[in-house]
Protein backbone atom coordinates (compact mmCIF):
# COMPACT_ATOMS: atom_id res chain seq x y z
CA UNK A 1 0.00 0.00 0.00
CA UNK A 2 2.81 2.41 0.83
CA UNK A 3 4.37 1.88 -2.58
CA UNK A 4 1.06 2.52 -4.34
CA UNK A 5 0.48 5.61 -2.23
CA UNK A 6 3.98 6.90 -3.09
CA UNK A 7 3.46 6.39 -6.83
CA UNK A 8 0.09 8.15 -6.62
CA UNK A 9 1.68 11.09 -4.82
CA UNK A 10 4.41 11.35 -7.43
CA UNK A 11 1.79 11.28 -10.18
CA UNK A 12 -0.21 14.07 -8.55
CA UNK A 13 2.95 16.08 -7.96
CA UNK A 14 3.97 15.66 -11.56
CA UNK A 15 0.52 16.68 -12.79
CA UNK A 16 0.57 19.81 -10.65
CA UNK A 17 4.03 20.62 -11.88
CA UNK A 18 2.94 20.27 -15.49
CA UNK A 19 -0.02 22.61 -14.89
CA UNK A 20 2.14 25.26 -13.27
CA UNK A 21 4.68 24.96 -16.06
CA UNK A 22 1.90 25.36 -18.61
CA UNK A 23 0.86 28.58 -16.89
CA UNK A 24 4.46 29.74 -17.10
CA UNK A 25 4.44 28.96 -20.79
CA UNK A 26 1.46 31.25 -21.36
CA UNK A 27 3.22 34.23 -19.82
CA UNK A 28 4.71 35.38 -23.12
CA UNK A 29 4.29 39.03 -22.17
CA UNK A 30 6.52 38.65 -19.11
CA UNK A 31 9.49 36.41 -19.76
CA UNK A 32 11.16 37.47 -16.51
CA UNK A 33 8.19 36.28 -14.44
CA UNK A 34 8.15 32.96 -16.26
CA UNK A 35 11.89 32.52 -15.77
CA UNK A 36 11.63 33.22 -12.05
CA UNK A 37 8.73 30.80 -11.80
CA UNK A 38 10.70 28.09 -13.60
CA UNK A 39 13.66 28.48 -11.25
CA UNK A 40 11.32 28.49 -8.24
CA UNK A 41 9.77 25.23 -9.40
CA UNK A 42 13.22 23.70 -9.63
CA UNK A 43 13.99 24.72 -6.09
CA UNK A 44 10.68 23.58 -4.57
CA UNK A 45 10.20 20.36 -6.52
CA UNK A 46 12.41 17.29 -6.05
CA UNK A 47 15.10 17.12 -8.74
CA UNK A 48 14.06 13.64 -9.83
CA UNK A 49 10.45 14.77 -10.32
CA UNK A 50 11.59 17.57 -12.60
CA UNK A 51 13.65 15.20 -14.72
CA UNK A 52 11.18 12.32 -15.00
CA UNK A 53 8.10 14.37 -15.85
CA UNK A 54 7.54 15.25 -19.49
CA UNK A 55 6.43 18.87 -19.61
CA UNK A 56 5.19 19.67 -23.14
CA UNK A 57 4.18 23.30 -23.39
CA UNK A 58 6.54 24.41 -26.16
CA UNK A 59 4.74 25.69 -29.23
CA UNK A 60 5.40 23.49 -32.27
CA UNK A 61 6.45 25.43 -35.38
CA UNK A 62 7.09 23.52 -38.60
CA UNK A 63 9.81 24.91 -40.86
CA UNK A 64 11.07 23.88 -44.25
CA UNK A 65 14.69 24.02 -45.32
CA UNK A 66 16.04 26.42 -47.92
CA UNK A 67 19.54 27.55 -48.75
CA UNK A 68 21.71 30.29 -47.36
CA UNK A 69 24.06 31.17 -50.21
CA UNK A 70 26.51 32.95 -47.93
CA UNK A 71 27.03 29.93 -45.68
CA UNK A 72 27.11 27.59 -48.68
CA UNK A 73 29.90 29.67 -50.21
CA UNK A 74 31.92 29.33 -47.00
CA UNK A 75 31.47 25.56 -47.02
CA UNK A 76 32.32 25.42 -50.73
CA UNK A 77 35.57 27.28 -50.13
CA UNK A 78 36.49 25.42 -46.94
CA UNK A 79 36.02 22.07 -48.68
CA UNK A 80 38.89 22.90 -51.03
CA UNK A 81 40.97 24.27 -48.17
CA UNK A 82 40.53 21.06 -46.18
CA UNK A 83 41.38 18.86 -49.17
CA UNK A 84 44.50 20.90 -49.91
CA UNK A 85 45.57 20.84 -46.25
CA UNK A 86 45.15 17.07 -46.02
CA UNK A 87 47.05 16.52 -49.27
CA UNK A 88 49.92 18.72 -48.09
CA UNK A 89 50.10 16.66 -44.91
CA UNK A 90 50.02 13.35 -46.81
CA UNK A 91 52.71 14.37 -49.31
CA UNK A 92 54.93 15.80 -46.56
CA UNK A 93 54.72 12.54 -44.57
CA UNK A 94 55.21 10.28 -47.59
CA UNK A 95 57.89 7.67 -46.77
CA UNK A 96 59.94 8.38 -49.88
CA UNK A 97 61.51 11.72 -50.70
CA UNK A 98 60.56 11.25 -54.35
CA UNK A 99 57.40 12.86 -55.76
CA UNK A 100 54.20 11.04 -54.87
CA UNK A 101 52.46 9.29 -57.80
CA UNK A 102 48.97 10.62 -58.43
CA UNK A 103 47.57 7.10 -58.52
CA UNK A 104 48.58 6.67 -54.86
CA UNK A 105 46.38 9.63 -53.93
CA UNK A 106 43.44 8.93 -56.26
CA UNK A 107 41.66 6.49 -53.87
CA UNK A 108 41.43 9.28 -51.27
CA UNK A 109 38.79 11.26 -53.17
CA UNK A 110 36.01 10.46 -50.71
CA UNK A 111 38.25 10.92 -47.67
CA UNK A 112 39.26 14.35 -48.94
CA UNK A 113 35.62 15.31 -49.51
CA UNK A 114 36.18 16.07 -53.19
CA UNK A 115 33.61 15.92 -55.95
CA UNK A 116 36.26 15.88 -58.70
CA UNK A 117 39.18 13.47 -59.32
CA UNK A 118 42.20 14.00 -57.09
CA UNK A 119 44.51 14.45 -60.10
CA UNK A 120 42.36 17.28 -61.40
CA UNK A 121 42.39 18.91 -57.97
CA UNK A 122 46.18 18.71 -57.71
CA UNK A 123 46.62 20.33 -61.11
CA UNK A 124 44.12 23.02 -60.19
CA UNK A 125 46.46 24.52 -57.57
CA UNK A 126 50.03 24.70 -58.96
CA UNK A 127 51.15 27.09 -56.22
CA UNK A 128 50.77 24.21 -53.75
CA UNK A 129 51.52 21.07 -55.74
CA UNK A 130 54.40 20.87 -58.22
CA UNK A 131 53.87 18.27 -60.95
CA UNK A 132 56.78 16.28 -62.35
CA UNK A 133 57.20 12.99 -64.24
CA UNK A 134 57.80 9.85 -62.25
CA UNK A 135 61.50 8.83 -62.09
CA UNK A 136 60.80 5.33 -63.43
CA UNK A 137 57.57 5.89 -65.38
CA UNK A 138 57.69 9.27 -67.17
CA UNK A 139 54.06 9.03 -68.27
CA UNK A 140 52.90 8.72 -64.66
CA UNK A 141 52.16 12.17 -63.13
CA UNK A 142 53.70 12.73 -59.72
CA UNK A 143 53.52 15.61 -57.28
CA UNK A 144 55.65 17.24 -54.61
CA UNK A 145 55.12 20.30 -52.44
CA UNK A 146 55.65 23.70 -54.01
CA UNK A 147 57.70 26.29 -52.07
CA UNK A 148 54.57 28.01 -50.74
CA UNK A 149 53.22 24.69 -49.46
CA UNK A 150 56.52 24.02 -47.68
CA UNK A 151 56.25 27.37 -45.90
CA UNK A 152 52.64 26.66 -44.95
CA UNK A 153 53.57 23.22 -43.67
CA UNK A 154 56.33 24.64 -41.48
CA UNK A 155 54.01 27.24 -40.03
CA UNK A 156 51.30 24.69 -39.41
CA UNK A 157 53.61 22.45 -37.39
CA UNK A 158 54.78 25.43 -35.32
CA UNK A 159 51.19 26.46 -34.72
CA UNK A 160 50.19 22.97 -33.58
CA UNK A 161 53.08 23.04 -31.12
CA UNK A 162 52.05 26.42 -29.70
CA UNK A 163 48.39 25.36 -29.51
CA UNK A 164 49.05 21.98 -27.85
CA UNK A 165 47.62 22.94 -24.45
CA UNK A 166 44.44 24.44 -25.91
CA UNK A 167 44.06 21.48 -28.27
CA UNK A 168 44.28 19.07 -25.34
CA UNK A 169 41.56 21.06 -23.58
CA UNK A 170 39.26 20.87 -26.62
CA UNK A 171 39.82 17.14 -26.88
CA UNK A 172 39.22 16.65 -23.15
CA UNK A 173 35.96 18.62 -23.29
CA UNK A 174 34.68 16.38 -26.07
CA UNK A 175 35.51 13.29 -24.02
CA UNK A 176 33.81 14.78 -20.95
CA UNK A 177 30.48 14.90 -22.78
CA UNK A 178 30.40 11.13 -23.38
CA UNK A 179 28.81 8.58 -21.07
CA UNK A 180 32.02 6.70 -20.30
CA UNK A 181 34.32 9.72 -20.63
CA UNK A 182 35.86 7.97 -23.64
CA UNK A 183 35.42 7.95 -27.43
CA UNK A 184 36.65 5.70 -30.26
CA UNK A 185 39.77 6.87 -32.04
CA UNK A 186 37.96 6.33 -35.33
CA UNK A 187 35.38 8.99 -34.45
CA UNK A 188 38.05 11.34 -33.13
CA UNK A 189 40.08 10.96 -36.33
CA UNK A 190 37.09 12.13 -38.36
CA UNK A 191 36.80 15.25 -36.20
CA UNK A 192 40.55 15.82 -36.07
CA UNK A 193 40.69 18.55 -38.71
CA UNK A 194 37.61 20.37 -37.38
CA UNK A 195 38.97 20.36 -33.82
CA UNK A 196 42.30 21.77 -34.97
CA UNK A 197 44.33 18.70 -33.99
CA UNK A 198 47.46 17.53 -35.83
CA UNK A 199 47.20 14.39 -37.94
CA UNK A 200 49.59 12.71 -35.51
CA UNK A 201 47.64 13.66 -32.39
CA UNK A 202 47.35 10.00 -31.33
CA UNK A 203 51.15 9.65 -31.22
CA UNK A 204 52.14 13.18 -30.23
CA UNK A 205 49.45 15.10 -28.35
CA UNK A 206 47.94 12.20 -26.41
CA UNK A 207 51.24 10.72 -25.09
CA UNK A 208 52.39 14.20 -24.06
CA UNK A 209 49.52 14.40 -21.55
CA UNK A 210 49.56 11.15 -19.52
CA UNK A 211 47.96 13.09 -16.69
CA UNK A 212 44.88 13.66 -18.83
CA UNK A 213 44.52 10.92 -21.46
CA UNK A 214 44.69 7.14 -21.50
CA UNK A 215 44.46 4.82 -24.50
CA UNK A 216 42.08 1.88 -24.06
CA UNK A 217 43.01 -1.17 -26.18
CA UNK A 218 40.35 -3.00 -28.26
CA UNK A 219 40.26 -5.83 -25.72
CA UNK A 220 38.91 -3.38 -23.12
CA UNK A 221 37.08 -1.00 -25.43
CA UNK A 222 34.55 -3.37 -26.96
CA UNK A 223 36.64 -4.13 -30.03
CA UNK A 224 37.62 -0.49 -30.61
CA UNK A 225 40.67 1.48 -29.60
CA UNK A 226 39.35 4.31 -27.46
CA UNK A 227 40.71 7.44 -25.87
CA UNK A 228 39.69 7.97 -22.26
CA UNK A 229 40.16 10.61 -19.60
CA UNK A 230 42.35 9.78 -16.63
CA UNK A 231 40.36 12.19 -14.47
CA UNK A 232 37.67 14.82 -14.91
CA UNK A 233 39.19 18.31 -15.04
CA UNK A 234 36.45 20.34 -13.37
CA UNK A 235 37.90 23.62 -14.57
CA UNK A 236 37.00 22.57 -18.13
CA UNK A 237 33.39 21.64 -17.30
CA UNK A 238 32.06 25.05 -18.33
CA UNK A 239 30.19 25.27 -21.62
CA UNK A 240 30.58 27.95 -24.26
CA UNK A 241 27.06 29.20 -23.52
CA UNK A 242 27.89 29.60 -19.83
CA UNK A 243 31.06 31.47 -20.73
CA UNK A 244 29.03 33.71 -23.01
CA UNK A 245 26.93 34.80 -20.03
CA UNK A 246 29.94 35.10 -17.72
CA UNK A 247 30.20 38.85 -18.26
CA UNK A 248 27.37 39.29 -15.75
CA UNK A 249 29.78 38.55 -12.91
CA UNK A 250 33.33 39.65 -12.30
CA UNK A 251 36.15 37.10 -12.38
CA UNK A 252 33.90 34.02 -12.74
CA UNK A 253 35.26 30.72 -11.48
CA UNK A 254 34.16 27.13 -11.86
CA UNK A 255 32.22 27.33 -8.57
CA UNK A 256 30.31 30.33 -9.87
CA UNK A 257 29.08 28.34 -12.84
CA UNK A 258 28.19 25.21 -10.88
CA UNK A 259 26.69 26.74 -7.73
CA UNK A 260 25.86 30.32 -8.57
CA UNK A 261 23.63 32.08 -11.04
CA UNK A 262 24.93 30.04 -13.99
CA UNK A 263 24.23 26.53 -12.75
CA UNK A 264 22.33 23.93 -14.74
CA UNK A 265 19.08 25.08 -13.12
CA UNK A 266 19.33 28.47 -14.84
CA UNK A 267 17.46 29.02 -18.13
CA UNK A 268 20.30 30.52 -20.18
CA UNK A 269 19.36 31.80 -23.64
CA UNK A 270 20.98 30.60 -26.85
CA UNK A 271 22.00 33.36 -29.27
CA UNK A 272 19.65 33.39 -32.26
CA UNK A 273 20.17 34.72 -35.77
CA UNK A 274 17.11 34.87 -38.03
CA UNK A 275 16.58 36.50 -41.42
CA UNK A 276 15.08 39.98 -41.45
CA UNK A 277 11.44 39.86 -40.38
CA UNK A 278 11.50 36.16 -39.68
CA UNK A 279 12.33 36.35 -35.98
CA UNK A 280 9.52 38.86 -35.45
CA UNK A 281 6.80 36.34 -36.34
CA UNK A 282 4.52 35.65 -33.39
CA UNK A 283 4.75 31.88 -33.68
CA UNK A 284 8.53 31.91 -33.70
CA UNK A 285 8.77 34.40 -30.84
CA UNK A 286 6.40 32.35 -28.70
CA UNK A 287 8.31 29.19 -29.54
CA UNK A 288 11.69 30.67 -28.62
CA UNK A 289 10.38 32.20 -25.40
CA UNK A 290 9.02 28.84 -24.30
CA UNK A 291 12.24 27.12 -25.26
CA UNK A 292 14.45 29.57 -23.38
CA UNK A 293 12.34 29.27 -20.22
CA UNK A 294 13.39 25.66 -19.88
CA UNK A 295 16.35 25.09 -17.53
CA UNK A 296 19.73 24.82 -19.21
CA UNK A 297 21.58 21.57 -18.54
CA UNK A 298 25.30 21.77 -19.17
CA UNK A 299 26.62 19.16 -21.64
CA UNK A 300 29.11 18.18 -18.95
CA UNK A 301 26.45 17.35 -16.34
CA UNK A 302 24.94 13.93 -15.67
CA UNK A 303 21.80 13.46 -17.76
CA UNK A 304 20.87 9.93 -16.70
CA UNK A 305 17.77 11.12 -14.84
CA UNK A 306 16.25 13.14 -17.69
CA UNK A 307 13.22 11.68 -19.43
CA UNK A 308 14.25 10.84 -22.99
CA UNK A 309 10.91 12.13 -24.34
CA UNK A 310 10.85 15.39 -22.40
CA UNK A 311 11.43 18.91 -23.63
CA UNK A 312 14.27 19.14 -21.13
CA UNK A 313 16.07 16.39 -23.02
CA UNK A 314 15.49 18.26 -26.27
CA UNK A 315 17.12 21.36 -24.86
CA UNK A 316 19.94 19.23 -23.47
CA UNK A 317 20.55 17.80 -26.97
CA UNK A 318 20.60 21.31 -28.43
CA UNK A 319 23.14 22.26 -25.77
CA UNK A 320 25.39 19.29 -26.59
CA UNK A 321 25.35 20.04 -30.32
CA UNK A 322 25.97 23.72 -29.62
CA UNK A 323 28.95 22.85 -27.43
CA UNK A 324 30.52 20.46 -29.96
CA UNK A 325 30.30 23.03 -32.74
CA UNK A 326 31.72 25.66 -30.38
CA UNK A 327 34.78 23.46 -29.85
CA UNK A 328 35.54 23.30 -33.58
CA UNK A 329 37.91 25.75 -35.21
CA UNK A 330 35.49 26.79 -37.96
CA UNK A 331 32.29 26.37 -35.88
CA UNK A 332 31.06 23.65 -38.23
CA UNK A 333 31.46 19.96 -38.99
CA UNK A 334 29.85 17.20 -41.04
CA UNK A 335 26.63 15.66 -39.83
CA UNK A 336 27.99 12.12 -40.27
CA UNK A 337 30.84 12.90 -37.86
CA UNK A 338 28.28 13.74 -35.18
CA UNK A 339 26.27 10.64 -35.94
CA UNK A 340 29.28 8.50 -35.10
CA UNK A 341 29.16 9.98 -31.58
CA UNK A 342 25.43 9.47 -31.02
CA UNK A 343 25.50 6.51 -28.64
CA UNK A 344 28.50 7.72 -26.66
CA UNK A 345 26.93 11.14 -26.14
CA UNK A 346 23.50 9.75 -25.31
CA UNK A 347 21.77 11.47 -28.21
CA UNK A 348 18.38 10.25 -29.50
CA UNK A 349 18.26 8.25 -32.71
CA UNK A 350 17.02 11.13 -34.85
CA UNK A 351 18.86 13.92 -33.07
CA UNK A 352 19.73 15.60 -36.40
CA UNK A 353 16.16 16.93 -36.48
CA UNK A 354 17.40 19.59 -34.07
CA UNK A 355 19.36 21.24 -36.87
CA UNK A 356 16.20 21.99 -38.83
CA UNK A 357 13.99 22.54 -35.78
CA UNK A 358 16.24 25.32 -34.47
CA UNK A 359 17.38 27.25 -37.58
CA UNK A 360 18.15 30.31 -35.48
CA UNK A 361 20.99 28.37 -33.83
CA UNK A 362 22.16 25.99 -36.57
CA UNK A 363 22.41 25.99 -40.35
CA UNK A 364 22.33 22.75 -42.31
CA UNK A 365 24.02 22.81 -45.72
CA UNK A 366 23.82 20.23 -48.50
CA UNK A 367 26.72 21.76 -50.42
CA UNK A 368 29.46 19.60 -51.96
CA UNK A 369 27.35 16.42 -51.93
CA UNK A 370 27.48 16.16 -48.16
CA UNK A 371 25.66 17.57 -45.14
CA UNK A 372 27.46 20.15 -43.04
CA UNK A 373 26.24 21.69 -39.78
CA UNK A 374 27.20 25.26 -38.90
CA UNK A 375 26.79 27.35 -35.78
CA UNK A 376 25.18 30.59 -36.90
CA UNK A 377 26.55 32.69 -34.06
CA UNK A 378 30.10 31.82 -35.13
CA UNK A 379 29.83 33.90 -38.31
CA UNK A 380 29.07 37.49 -39.11
CA UNK A 381 29.13 38.96 -42.62
CA UNK A 382 30.71 35.81 -43.99
CA UNK A 383 33.62 35.73 -41.54
CA UNK A 384 34.34 34.02 -38.24
CA UNK A 385 33.49 36.24 -35.29
CA UNK A 386 36.41 34.92 -33.25
CA UNK A 387 38.91 33.35 -35.68
CA UNK A 388 41.34 30.80 -34.29
CA UNK A 389 45.02 31.09 -35.33
CA UNK A 390 44.63 27.81 -37.21
CA UNK A 391 41.71 29.22 -39.18
CA UNK A 392 43.78 32.30 -40.03
CA UNK A 393 46.55 30.07 -41.37
CA UNK A 394 44.02 28.18 -43.47
CA UNK A 395 42.80 31.51 -44.85
CA UNK A 396 46.37 32.17 -45.94
CA UNK A 397 46.34 28.76 -47.60
CA UNK A 398 43.27 29.77 -49.59
CA UNK A 399 45.03 32.98 -50.63
CA UNK A 400 47.86 30.92 -52.12
CA UNK A 401 45.36 28.57 -53.77
CA UNK A 402 43.42 31.31 -55.55
CA UNK A 403 46.68 32.98 -56.59
CA UNK A 404 47.57 29.80 -58.45
CA UNK A 405 44.25 29.89 -60.30
CA UNK A 406 44.76 33.54 -61.24
CA UNK A 407 48.19 32.93 -62.76
CA UNK A 408 47.57 29.44 -64.07
CA UNK A 409 47.51 30.58 -67.71
CA UNK A 410 50.25 33.22 -67.39
CA UNK A 411 53.23 31.13 -66.34
CA UNK A 412 54.42 30.22 -62.87
CA UNK A 413 57.40 32.58 -63.12
CA UNK A 414 55.09 35.46 -62.18
CA UNK A 415 54.20 33.90 -58.84
CA UNK A 416 56.79 34.75 -56.19
CA UNK A 417 55.94 34.40 -52.50
CA UNK A 418 57.92 35.66 -49.54
CA UNK A 419 58.08 34.06 -46.08
CA UNK A 420 54.86 35.85 -45.15
CA UNK A 421 53.13 34.18 -48.10
CA UNK A 422 52.46 37.57 -49.67
CA UNK A 423 52.48 37.92 -53.44
CA UNK A 424 55.45 39.81 -54.86
CA UNK A 425 55.46 41.34 -58.33
CA UNK A 426 53.02 43.53 -60.24
CA UNK A 427 50.98 45.86 -58.05
CA UNK A 428 48.16 45.86 -60.59
CA UNK A 429 47.81 42.10 -60.66
CA UNK A 430 44.25 42.34 -59.42
CA UNK A 431 44.67 39.63 -56.80
CA UNK A 432 42.75 41.61 -54.23
CA UNK A 433 39.72 41.75 -56.48
CA UNK A 434 39.84 38.07 -57.38
CA UNK A 435 36.95 36.18 -55.82
CA UNK A 436 38.51 32.74 -56.07
CA UNK A 437 36.48 31.52 -59.04
CA UNK A 438 34.74 28.21 -59.04
CA UNK A 439 35.81 25.60 -56.52
CA UNK A 440 35.97 21.84 -56.86
CA UNK A 441 32.41 21.33 -55.64
CA UNK A 442 29.83 20.76 -58.34
CA UNK A 443 27.78 23.87 -58.95
CA UNK A 444 24.17 23.66 -57.82
CA UNK A 445 21.87 25.63 -60.10
CA UNK A 446 18.87 25.27 -57.82
CA UNK A 447 19.27 28.59 -56.02
CA UNK A 448 16.62 29.95 -53.67
CA UNK A 449 15.59 33.53 -53.99
CA UNK A 450 16.07 34.50 -50.36
CA UNK A 451 18.49 31.82 -49.30
CA UNK A 452 17.10 31.53 -45.80
CA UNK A 453 14.62 29.66 -43.61
CA UNK A 454 10.89 30.11 -44.09
CA UNK A 455 7.84 28.83 -42.27
CA UNK A 456 6.27 25.83 -43.95
CA UNK A 457 2.52 26.04 -43.71
CA UNK A 458 1.77 23.25 -46.18
CA UNK A 459 3.76 20.40 -44.69
CA UNK A 460 3.76 18.60 -41.38
CA UNK A 461 7.35 17.52 -41.56
CA UNK A 462 10.66 18.71 -42.87
CA UNK A 463 12.42 17.22 -45.85
CA UNK A 464 13.73 13.76 -45.10
CA UNK A 465 16.89 14.46 -47.06
CA UNK A 466 17.73 17.21 -44.60
CA UNK A 467 16.68 15.64 -41.32
CA UNK A 468 17.50 11.99 -41.68
From TrEMBL:
Q: What is the lineage of its organism?
A: Eukaryota, Viridiplantae, Streptophyta, Embryophyta, Tracheophyta
Q: Which PANTHER family match?
A: OS04G0546100 PROTEIN, PROTEIN WHAT'S THIS FACTOR 1 HOMOLOG, CHLOROPLASTIC
Q: Positions of the region Disordered? A: 429-468
Q: Which domain of life is it from?
A: Eukaryota
Occurrences of domain PORR (ranges): 66-404
- Protein name, entry field: PORR domain-containing protein
Q: Which Pfam families does the entry mention?
A: PORR
Q: Name one GO molecular function term.
A: RNA binding
Q: Where is the composition biased (Acidic residues)?
A: 441-468
Q: Which organism is it from?
A: Vanilla planifolia
Entry's InterPro entries? Answer: PORR_domain, PORR_fam
